[in-house]
């Protein structure tokens, strides 16, 4: 069945899923912009005017600024909106310059709505809706990204060299406690491993269940018992993971002076670490520790594909335009909407002159397309408008 037929409302994340007559019309954009202009989170004279990184968490349907000292730390029970704005040089014809180009600063925006694996549907829906609203506030110039905790995209990972995923959340089933309020009897176990989405030295810190079954000999673990901190180095862990663990321990000990003990799995003394995690009958010298990582690399298709969403013939059609490495910018037509399956991500490109119906249907078509693909649930879905594309989009097109 073509992706534009038999469309249903998704059960989890429902963006802008409407096809009424005025969707994407001038009046629609004006109404949404006026609504966005009353949102305190955006209407502060900074958003859209100054480059930088800005983060908000969804709390009871409200957009609440995330403290800057917590940037890079996210709770798996929550949903967040992240805006990254930067100035780039763009070439533009100057007055009276028929044969030369003048460079001009241009603000480029990327909006990520980050969904923790235990976030509620209300929080996820609010994050998605507010992401669209923020894009309206930025006059439709932003690239929108759906970001899942379980499969971070390279673009998102690049923003946070020190990315930490913590348990808890505003409305999750876990108890949400701040670090300074944590009772001493609550143990915290952090798993430190190479991020599947980052570069060679990208390391991720992820809070896991404090049990010996969470251990893996390929990684490093930090156990905070309140009055003492233990570091457990798996026998096959990487040097960068050890270094990252040292940074984590330093952060933990800044606010409190406690002893730190570093243990290698190959040492008999490492039995202490396992015992604290309930493994009294487990011999660390004889046990093979293996636990699935809570974050995995996004699945990748064997062949890149480009589809066109068009109503030029009257009815709405969704057709394959080209596949393989020959796809390029010349295959895009400003009169339509295109969906690019780039392997590790799905990109939607909205042509400047695309019809109202095409603009209204892109998200439903993209969702349906992802649902029809095997192992595609974790893929990043991003949308750009013609003239506001960033480097990541062109890299995906030309790859």
Give a quick precis of the structure:
This is Actin depolymerizing protein. This protein is α/β, with parallel strands linked by helices and 399 residues long.
Task: Give your account of this protein's structure.
Strands 2-1-4-5-6-17-16-15-13-14 form a ten-stranded mixed β-sheet, with helices on both faces. Strand 15 (337-341) and strand 16 form a beta hairpin. Among the domains are: 182-276, Severin, CATH 3.40.20; 298-399, 3-Layer(aba) Sandwich (Severin), CATH 3.40.20.10. With 399 residues, it is α/β, with parallel strands linked by helices. It has seven helices and 17 strands. Mean pLDDT is 80; it is low at 1-25, 92-100, 172-177 and 181-185. Helix 1 crosses helix 2. It is elongated, with a radius of gyration of 24 Å. It has helices spanning 26-37, 121-137, 154-159, 239-254, 271-276, 356-372, 391-398, and strands at residues 52-59, 62-65, 73-75, 79-93, 101-115, 143-148, 162-166, 188-194, 203-208, 220-224, 228-233, 259-264, 305-310, 317-323, 337-341, 345-350, 380-385. The two termini are 29 Å apart.
Task: Name the descriptors.
399 residues; alpha/beta; Severin; ten-stranded mixed β-sheet; 7 helices; 21% helix; elongated
**Major beta sheet summary:** 10 strands, mixed
Low-confidence stretches: 1-25, 92-100, 172-177, 181-185
Task: Specify the helix fraction band.
Answer: 10-25%
What is the CATH architecture term of the domain at 298-399?
3-Layer(aba) Sandwich
Secondary-structure element series: HEEEEEHEHEEEEEHEHEEEEHEH
Overall spatial form:
elongated
Rg measurement, Å: 24 Å
Distance between the termini: 29 Å
Instruction: Identify the strand order in the major beta sheet.
Output: 2-1-4-5-6-17-16-15-13-14
């Amino acid at each position: 069945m073509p992706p534009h037929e038999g469309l249903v409302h998704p059960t989890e994340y429902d963006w802008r899923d409407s096809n009424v007559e005025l969707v994407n019309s001038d009046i629609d954009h004006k109404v949404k912009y006026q609504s966005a202009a009353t949102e305190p989170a955006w209407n502060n004279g900074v958003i859209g005017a100054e480059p930088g990184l800005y983060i908000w968490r969804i709390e009871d349907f409200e957009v609440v600024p995330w403290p800057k000292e917590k940037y890079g730390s996210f709770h798996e029970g929550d949903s967040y909106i992240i805006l990254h704005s930067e100035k780039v040089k763009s070439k533009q014809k100057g007055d009276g310059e028929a044969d030369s180009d003048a460079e001009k600063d241009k603000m480029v925006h990327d909006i990520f709505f980050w969904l923790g694996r235990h976030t509620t549907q209300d929080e996820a829906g609010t994050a998605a809706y507010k992401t669209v609203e923020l894009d309206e506030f930025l006059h439709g110039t932003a690239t929108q990204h759906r970001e899942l905790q379980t499969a971070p995209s390279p673009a998102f990972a690049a923003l946070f060299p020190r990315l930490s995923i913590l348990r808890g959340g505003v409305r999750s089933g876990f108890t949400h406690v701040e670090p300074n309020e944590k009772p001493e009897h609550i143990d915290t176990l952090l798993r430190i491993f190479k991020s599947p989405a980052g570069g060679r030295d990208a390391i991720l810190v992820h809070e896991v269940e404090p049990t010996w079954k969470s251990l893996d000999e390929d990684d490093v673990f930090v156990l905070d018992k309140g009055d003492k901190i233990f570091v457990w180095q798996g026998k096959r862990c990487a040097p960068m993971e050890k270094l990252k663990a040292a940074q984590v321990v330093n952060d933990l000990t800044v606010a409190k002076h406690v002893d730190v003990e570093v243990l290698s799995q190959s040492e008999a003394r490492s039995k202490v670490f396992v015992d604290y995690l309930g493994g009294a009958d487990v011999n660390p010298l004889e046990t093979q520790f293996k636990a699935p990582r809570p974050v995995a690399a996004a699945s990748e298709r064997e062949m890149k594909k480009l589809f066109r969403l068009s109503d030029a013939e009257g009815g709405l059609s969704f057709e394959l335009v080209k596949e393989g490495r020959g796809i390029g910018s010349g295959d895009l037509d400003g009169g339509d909407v295109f969906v690019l399956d780039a392997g590790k991500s799905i990109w939607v490109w909205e042509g400047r002159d695309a019809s109202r119906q095409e603009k209204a249907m892109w998200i439903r078509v993209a969702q349906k397309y992802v649902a029809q693909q095997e192992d595609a649930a974790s893929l990043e879905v991003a949308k750009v408008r013609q003239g506001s594309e960033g480097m990541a989009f062109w890299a995906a097109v030309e790859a």
